[in-house]
Model the fold of this input.
Amino acid sequence: MNTILIVGAGGVSSVTAHKCAQLPEVFHKIHLASRTLSKCHLVAASVRQRTGREISTHHLDADNLDESILLLRTLRPDLLLNLALPYQNLTLMDACLATGTSYLDTANYEPREIARFEYKWQWQYHERFRKQNLCALLGSGFDPGVTNVFTSFAAKHYFDEIVELDIVDVNGGENTESFATNFNSEINIREVSAVCRHWENGQFVESPSFSTHRTFSCPEGIGDFEIYRMYHEELESLTQAYPSLRRAQFWMSFSPTYLRNLKVLSNVGMTGIQPVDYREKSVVPLQFLKSLLPDPGSLGESTTGKTCIGCIIRGTKEEEHRTIYIYNSCSHESSFAETGSQAVSYTTGIPAMIGAKLMLQGRWFEAGVWNMEHFDPDPFMEDLNTLGLPWSIEEHDPFLKENRP
Ligand SMILES: NC(=O)c1ccc[n+]([C@@H]2O[C@H](COP(=O)([O-])OP(=O)(O)OC[C@H]3O[C@@H](n4cnc5c(N)ncnc54)[C@H](OP(=O)(O)O)[C@@H]3O)[C@@H](O)[C@H]2O)c1
Done:
């Protein structure tokens, strides 16, 4: 009897809850807990309506260690899926250690006061998870997550050695909002505003955010997009797992309107993460901005178009140079029709479900704290194909002009 506890009731969590409910043979009992109980009720009602399954809902402030331990002791899940925010990662990992529960998340821990994306805090838990025979799977979303698995799948089946990696994340979706982020706006703006870092000849090299860009032609007629180089957390674990990588870069598409709005907001200090005094109250500008922006979970109904996220991997096979491009494209409209959420939540929520499934089945279970590329990519790739995120492989380099459609 497998029991899971999903923490957080936002866009990603809602997709994961729906997809877990579609697999009763794996997920026997599903609990959902979050800070705002009414949001858990909304997710549970949608899951009931779409799948006929009941999930139990609970209130939890996951910043509170005692409260988290108490809930885990009461529910005794086999696995906790942390789909709240990166701020809660360490508290929830501590609660898992205190109660003998395995752990999964989709984004690395960030302290509230510095926007630094590093695994070092969570990797320090490795020995404690190992000693208790518990498994923690880090970054089981799309990027990080599927991008790590695409890379390890390519390294396993297509190359003797991989030397260059370009991860390209395009959201070709459009909606009626003048400025909206496609997942939690506080976390999203912290991430995209950070100094850019990419891997070059054995070290990370810094450059100003949004300073390097190029045009990318997506396959399947999705279109041409301006993509900007930025730092993303999977670069840290992948460059360690594959020391043969000479260069590793992450690129994301942004529309001119998004960039213009972000620049203005940043110029006037609205993206700041340090508290400021306002009428004798302490206010964090970015948190106030988040309260004004559309809830990404509510964008599903009005978003059209597709996401297209993939990895371009260059290396050698039997001493010949080789390049492959592995990607998934996902429609906002069909994601919404199936789960009530747009494709960015959908493409994150499904890998969280697949990671949980493989852990519970014992196929991706090893005591310790692991990133996705540690495990055999094959069962994960099979599940992506059958459980909602089919992928394609093309043997060419989409960064070369002559290969553009
Ligand atoms: N790897 C990937 O590909 C990827 C892509 C997108 C997002 N993500 C990650 O996925 C996570 C969820 O994103 P999202 O877009 O679903 O965010 P979201 O819609 O803002 O949902 C976050 C949820 O967490 C809850 N929460 C926040 N603080 C909490 C606390 N102290 N205790 C309990 N619950 C708390 C929120 O509750 P309230 O409603 O009360 O605020 C909300 O229900 C984030 O960590 C994000 O970085 C990963």
In short: Residues 107 and 217 are 28 Å apart (CA to CA).
